[in-house]
Amino acid sequence: QVQLVESGGGLVQAGGSLRLSCAASGSIVSINVMSWYRQAPGNQRELVAAASSGGTTNYADSVKGRFTISRDNTKKTVYLQMNRLKSEDTAVYYCNAGLSTQYRYLEVWGQGTLVTVSS
Known about the structure:
This protein is an all-beta fold. The protein has strands spanning 3-7, 10-13, 18-25, 30-39, 46-51, 57-59, 67-72, 77-82, 91-100, 105-109, 113-118. The strands form 2 sheets. Strands 2, 4, 5, 6, 9, 10 and 11 form a 7-stranded mixed sheet that branches. It is elongated, with a radius of gyration of 14 Å. 28% of the residues are buried. The model has no long low-confidence stretch (mean pLDDT 97).
């Protein structure tokens, strides 16, 4: 069974920082793209940042210069360092990965972790 487990969410004041982690586990052969999405109440889920296995990254315009995505491929883990947080960053953050098992390619989601930024 393949799963993604997120951690690191919580309550922080505006201007503060948080670091999210997402670890993949199970019978994984390889992981392609690992991404972070978020969904605020009443809004659609949106891409925050993505990192390919080769190190290419991309970010939503709203977080460029404040958030940094990184990966530790040996640990099958992706991180999201969030700095200068704003109230509008409040959302449930989800980890997503495109990965291969021995038998098939899967897109897997984590359970989500809540980030609340108080103004």
